[in-house]
Amino acid sequence: MEYEKIALVALFAVSMVGSPGPVNMLLMASGANFGYSRSLPFLIGSICGFLLVCLGAALGLGALFTAVPVLQIVFMAVSILYILYLAYRVATANPQLRDNAERPGYLAGLILHPLNPKAWVTIIAAYSQFISPAASYPGQVMTIMLVFLAVSFPLNSIWCYGGNVLGRLVTSARAMRAINVTLALLMVVAVSLALLQADILKPLLAAEVN
């Protein structure tokens, strides 16, 4: 892949990974409630989960969802229910139990992106825009994955560490509850927007990336 195209992939990755979404809201909430260092396993798990989405999209799962519409319906239903469950957990978290509460770990982060519609929309759009039929398909997929990996850790860390800073600045339990509720609402809004984008990109899901 040419350097110019890699730069475009990087710009696309920064705009998508760094923008507000369900995972970034969760990372911010985790940082606010448990601190950055205690949230690292969760953060790393979420990045590994995104790489699983990259592999799944490269293997044609989007085309499978289109070929078997009931699978897409089931996926969307499970995604919505899971995000709503996570939003409920964030909204009802007790700031006074920060040190004793059960914090999300690696496995909790690992399943986030596979159940996050925004992740599938993002990587399918990336493959559709930047993969050329004239070049090696595996090589281009690997390059795109490496670019996303390179930008994911620092950008996701910013959200998580931002939450950590916010949690240190806010000493009122009532204010912290209000922040958690706000983050939970933003998660729901973000996943709703991702579902709308998924409808727009249905033609992309129907076509296998060659």
Question: What's the tally of helices?
Answer: 10
Cα(first) to Cα(last) distance is 15 Å
Oligomer state equals: single chain
Residue fraction in strands: under 5%
Low-confidence stretches: 200-210
Instruction: Summarize the biggest pleated sheet.
Output: none
Give the helices and strands, then pairings.
Blueprint (H helix, E strand, L loop, with lengths): L2 H15 L4 H13 L1 H23 L2 H7 L1 H23 L14 H5 L6 H14 L6 H33 L3 H28 L1 H5 L4
Structural features:
single chain; about 210 residues; mainly alpha; about 80% helix; disordered C terminus
Structure characterization notes:
By secondary structure, the chain is mainly alpha-helical. It has one domain. It contains ten helices and no strands. The C terminus is likely disordered.
In short:
The chain is mainly alpha-helical and 210 residues long. It has 10 helices and no strands. The longest helix has 33 residues, at 137-169.
